[in-house]
Predict the structure.
Amino acid sequence: MANTSKSSCACNGACTDAVWGELDEFIACQERGRNSLITVLHKAQELFGYLPVDVQKHIAKALGLTVSEVLGVVTFYHYFSMQPRGRHTVNVCMGTACYVRGAKKVMQAIQEQLGIKKGETTPDRRFSLTTQRCFGACGLAPVVMIDNDVHGRITPQKLAKILAKYE
Amino acid sequence: MSKPRMFLLVPIDANTVIAGAREVKNRFSLEIGKRGLAGEAKVIETGSFGPADAGVVVAVQPDGVVYGRLAPDDVPRIVEEHLVKGRPYVERILPGEKPPPPPESEDARHTQLHGRVVLDNCGRIDPDSIEEYIANDGYFALGQALTAMTPAQVIEEVKASGLRGRGGAGFPTGLKWSFCAPVKAREKYVICNADEGEPGTFKDRLIMEGDPHKVLEGMAICAYAIGATRGYVYIRGEYAISIERMQRAIDAARAKGLLGRNIFGRGFNFDIEIRKGAGAYVCGEETALIESMEGKRGLPRLKPPFPAQSGFRGMPTNVNNVETLANVPAIIRRGAAWFKSLGTAGTPGTKVYTILGHINRPGLIEVPAGVTLREIIEEYGGGMQSGSFHMAQLGGTAGDILGREMLDVPLDYDALQKVGHSLGSGAILIMNESVNVRDFLHACLKFFHHESCGRCGPCRNGLHVLRDITGRLKDGKAYKDDPGLMQEVALALKSSAFCPLGQSPAAPIMSAWRYFKDDILSGVDSNAARPRMARSLRADLSAAI
Ligand SMILES: Cc1cc2nc3c(=O)[nH]c(=O)nc-3n(C[C@H](O)[C@H](O)[C@H](O)COP(=O)(O)O)c2cc1C
Ligand code: SF4
Ligand code: FES
């Protein structure tokens, strides 16, 4: 099961046997059943970059759940993604503190500079664009998070320089 | 080695790391070493002591100087000028910041009493050092509770202190504990709610980053009081530094026997585990949080049964906010009477706020409950940055919008309730005239619309309608009956939505209407006519009814 559809999947070569193995090892250390599901999904997304259906099926089987239970959870939480992401995820804060400090303009500028809309990935797979409510870094509003780095006080001018740092 | 005569406190937290705080700290250590000052000046990594918008911040104590917006290349100058020659490097001094007292000074205890209960250690001690926490009376309260008090006495003390939950609702904490305590069960749980999803709120994050042991100690005391053996901290997945520091704190406490089996030799067993949230605002609601911990979609549960009877895995569970729990050790150590001497009669103690928006010094503050909005802006926020005060939103997106009339109302649960408002989670967003209230309302409604979990009809559909109405108002294209409809729907949601998420949009909408009626009405286009429903759709609808 674990090795199916390797060639057809869009993971950019992320789903090597080693990665599957690591996931299985992680699951083996968890309690079987529902209580571990979100913890396991966090790990799987960290390993694969996203949560393709094959991975979800695998997790469902390993934890003794139905695929629909797993899918239901994956689609509920913003943190989990079923789409392969670009190498870098650009996450724009749309929380109220950022909003009053110009998040809308920042979002427009990013869309223009990357040439994609929210939820999309650039054709070269370099960037994906998403939004979020608040990163809890509101003192630096407006805030953009790229992968795990938070960038504050963003202006459309500063953006280009920051984006250039991510290859 | 001689005792250091100077302390450099470098907050490493979510806000400063971005600005390069780690590099600056390393550079300080390097330069100090190079000049052979290692015995005299000590660099300490701390959590935030307040400023959230001043780049890399360093406090030099006992001189009481706070530097801001530092880059690594400023470091040699500061070491040369300030540490060697004793002349503060004025170009980088942050005006108006009060630094925390140095960690080992005589007057630390005294200054500490100047108002900080929850944040007393934040920015002063190394959050990764359990020894420093213990040196500042840490785990003393836990010891006291375990060795000299019965669980019932602990609950009585917390009740007597009048501590109210800081997660938003303001429910009396002692009373909550007393619901859980008598329930008989195989296992009970304490959950620390660190999901902090309310936009504009990051107090819990900085508490966990600055003083993680205080939260753990509060949880352990709560566990003893209600008879729980396991605790969970449910932290937002995005809070990487909080997760790391809390995990290290748990490991350190376990290694010292302050968590685990037979704590203080009193036969009390308690251990704590971290659970990562996955980004759904509604999961901050306690029953949705429990569902999420059980690996399900985070849909709120019907109450009753309350978590105190049947919570996580069907067992009695007590859920408290991070700040609530961080108040507990001081209450046990200093007593309820002391706690009541702070703040107001209705809201004893202090309140931690994050102040944001168009003010000069956004950041984290802890003030006695009952301070007014005007005082917060002028004294703590350094005044308006530009323009003049137009409106404020109290307590995040789900909070009330206040106009100028409310600048002098004391911020405590009861005083606000009297004038028809609530305090909420601790975010205070200050706005000048550049923000249009219609624009702002629409942003709030988009948020709710996005975060609705979809479980119940009123919220799922009502928020859709509200989002569209506020959108039309924002664009100046609203129909004549839109303002009325907006209030009607908001109030309908307030009375019929299943959980507080769906109920709360009424707060910003109704309060905005109260203070900015004319602004809102100016979004109506008297020529716009509501499109008539297509005939077939109408027929379908009436057939369905
Ligand atoms: C939609 C929603 C979101 C909430 N988010 C949080 C949160 O992020 N943090 C929190 O402590 N409480 C939050 N609460 C309140 C909790 O349900 C609960 O009242 C609180 O954790 C109890 O702790 P306390 O008594 O210490 O305040 C939220 C409630 C609702 C309805
Ligand atoms: S009110 Fe909204 S968030 Fe709450 S249960 Fe209903 S749909 Fe979900
Ligand atoms: S509102 Fe943007 S980080 Fe909080």
Observations:
- Chain B touches chain A through 57 residues (CB under 8 Å).
- The pocket of flavin mononucleotide (ligand 1) is lined by residues B 165-169, 171, 176, 193, 195-198, 281-282, 284-286, 319-321, 324, 499-501 (CB under 6 Å).
